[in-house]
Amino acid sequence: MSEPAPSDNAASGTIAFLGLGHMGGPMAANLIKAGHNVTGYDPVPAAVEAARAHGVPMAGSAAEAVAGAAVVLTMLPSGQHVLDAYRGVGGEPGLLSVAAPDTMFLDCSTINVEEAREAAAIALDAGHRSVDAPVSGGVVGAEAGTLTFMVGALPEDFEAVKPLLELMGKRVVHCGEHGAGQAAKVCNNMILGVSMIAVSEAFVLGEKLGLTHQALFDVAANASGQCWALTTNCPVPGPVPTSPANRDYQPGFAGALMAKDLRLALNALESTGVAAQMGPLASKIYDEFAAGAGAGRDFSGIITDIRDRSAT
Ligand code: NAD
After folding, report:
1. What spacing in Å lies between the alpha carbon of 18 and ligand 1's midpoint?
2. To bridge 87 with a disulfide, which of 55, 94, 100, 285 should be the other Cys (CB 3.0-4.6 Å)?
3. Host domain of residue 295
């Protein structure tokens, strides 16, 4: 583990943790378990109660949490939430204006690449430091401290936050400068969304052709069809006993989150002019899935939609 520069208190000072939801709650608890001084803030009373139950001291306002903090860690629903919190909205002071000079703004939310670059630009303009560090690994990874962090940061800022991220995750990858963490996340999740649809369509085709799930799995898992969607999150019950398909598609990774991440991928494809076909189609398919019961089901439940549409 690399040590931050001796004068750098980003890895040792107080952490203001904003957004104590499904992910932020357990992440903050892991920082506290490791001995860090954390002050949380969340506007939703249920999140406040849950965080307190996990031992996270909670402030009455974002400004109160941020006062005196060396790091402002955000784990919020969207990029608009992050930018609003940074700038201030509805008469509330923006965090950038409340924080002490040279505060480390560490955003772990999943947001648009452009929004991440904008957040970094306004943080730097206000005399602060900025890191985007979205995660994969879900609530299970947040609780176990086994998340993967994809980090966009200047090299010295990456070194400063790495020890903190290692307390919440098992893999911390420096992907490049501001926005590169979000770029890596959006590319990875586009692969995941597209590959889950491909695996699901293959299983439904196998059913129609008279193949058992196990036979198709035994071949594809050891052949060129091998991928995470097949071998870890297998969309049919049986071959991978731990996959959500074995518990009626309880998430896991909910359809609403996959739809959100694919919309971010779509935005990135459009803004860069990539002539992609599969990513936009996957976005459309998961938007439809998440508009109904799929929102709260694991994203591998897409196979039931494909099977329903294939009924003759
Ligand atoms: P969540 O909705 O459970 O939590 C977000 C929290 O932020 C809520 O409690 C909300 O009240 C709070 N919040 C909103 N505005 C705020 C503000 N201005 N200040 C302080 N708190 C505020 O969402 P989550 O599942 O914890 O996800 C958080 C982020 O992590 C999202 O960007 C999501 O895409 C990403 N993510 C989630 C998962 C997952 O499996 N849940 C996995 C990877 C990444």
Report:
1. 9
2. 94
3. 184-309
